[in-house]
Amino acid sequence: MKRTVKLSLALVLSLLILPFNSTAQTPSIAKRLRSEPVAPMSRNVLDINNIWLGVRNDGLVGYYEGGWLVTYPMDIGGIIYADNLIWVGEVKDGREPELRTGGGTYSSSVGVVPGAIVTKGVSENPSSQAVRVYRIRPDFQYADLLLDAAGYYHVSASTVTPRMAASVREQYDKDWKEWPWQKGAPFVDRNGNGLMDPDESRGLQNADQVAWFAYNDLDEAVCKAFSGDPPIGLEVQVTLWAYKDVPNLGDVIFKRYRLIYKGTSTTPASAVVDSMYLSQWVDPDVGDFFDDLGGCDSLLSLGYVFSGTNPDGAYRTLGGANPAVGYVILQGPLVQGSTNAEAIFGFTPRRGMKNLPMTSFLLNATGDPLNEPRAGSHSYWFWNVARGFMPFEQGTSTRPWSDLEGKTTKFMYGGDPVTRTGWIDGLGRSWVNGISIVEGERRIMLNTGPFGMALGDTQEVVIAIVASAAPDGRQNSVYLKNLARYLHGIYPNLGEYVAQFKKEPAGPEPSIPYDFTLDQNFPNPFNPSTTIRYAIPIDANVKLAIYDVLGRETRVLQDGRQSAGVYSAAWDARDTKNQLAPSGVYVYRLTANYLASTKKMMVVR
Q1: Which of 97, 37, 107, 113 is nearest to 68 (CA)?
Q2: What pTM was computed for the model?
Q3: What's the pLDDT score for residue 5?
Q4: CA 254: distance to chain centroid?
Q5: Alpha helices, H only, 209-347
Q6: pLDDT band at 66 (very low <50, low <70, confident <90, very high)
Q7: Neighbouring C-beta atoms of residue 191, cutoff 10 Å
Q8: pLDDT of residue 512
Q9: CA atoms within 13 A on the CB side of 181
Q10: How far apart are CA 320 and CA 326, in angstroms?
């Protein structure tokens, strides 16, 4: 039985001061969280903006031990019960069956285990302390972590103790130091060498909070418990990131899946996966789960669910706001395109390739005949759904969906809920030859494919989780579509978009940095002067010098002992004899004990 969110009038008044933990916990869980303020192992939370999202290191988003619903705004009410990734394709590796499904849905139906694949057929120990959900935020040393601790411990801010906040800061420190970039955790690779050098930072796209973890399907028993099918040998790397105080991104969490075909112990070098599809599976519960409606916009690669009751019972005391949630495929799998086509992979363009959009959409309503297959049984259900067909046949289906007018489509409920035109949810029938369906519980699947993978290949999909709150639940479809258009417009240039809104940190800059860094001088090119900023994590003999292109020392800006800290030095483009240096390219090099870094700059007269 799913839980609903209940709010009192006194509680609403308290929202002016403190966030509220509206999701009930059992006393044992609450007691454990308060008495053991320790670092997360199998789970973590993103809580930097208006969406608070719990995630496990086996890929399951949402439900965890009686709590951890995805909530909005902040910890006010639940909007997602669970989400997960499913894949299905024809695997040519010598094992049967060729058609295989993997991934997972609910907590009890997950066919993967935590950890990366170390080498072909061998994975990390899922119980290892290193196999966790890593989480970082650049300002963790001095930021106020009150709300952060409330989000992690799943309690109201008024009950956060100093020890809770300290433990969150300690875990940030640990994850920062142990950031597993060697396994695929993102970092800013300024020089493009694939290594996180001392002057390069963790994270991506100027995000204010980033989480990363990996899981795999190598455990045969666990894999078959979900779908009845043997493993493929896939490693999935998941990156979640979010922004605070950035216009239009406060109600968005970004999620990147990277699938790497590493193989099982018996996978031959010639193995391939043909006609593969990915499905973003979601069980959204918007407030009261029993009155939801859903739909999609195929042109925006958007699927969404909103409350069909105005106001929703769980949000009634919030002044009539009726939240909704949607998923947007911003970047689909990479496939061959035309000569002039351009795709995105790793936030960089790929010429001659294209990204697939959402290629089909399913809305599964409780009470309709679209029951998902029993766990542990081989089935064509996900294969048929992913390709946009009805799932009822025992084998491959080619029966398309039919709307209420009998028109065939691969996108269920693509009409307009506001104008109530086209095929929309809640009209009393689910499809032309289906049964009567009204408001109720919904599950959605955003599907994309087909694409192929050879052994060693990597595929990447980027999805945005979006939320909105309108007085009328149906009106949320307009808000979510507008937000989806906006995200498509700025993606993949998120970092550049965010940079223009970044402000100086509210707290003091940390006196002892964690990394040895040498920043690019600013301005560059320059005339008559420029500033060079650097940081050293330990007391050291520091030398900062300028050289011409022939390697001759032009000017020394610093040479001597310095304490750990952040420094800046100005160069007025003059040499050691106080003569103006000629126009051209110069090199500046920073050394601190055994550490060294070099960058280029240009003088323009």
Answers
A1: 107
A2: 0.79
A3: 37
A4: 4
A5: 220-227
A6: low
A7: 11
A8: 65
A9: 18
A10: 20
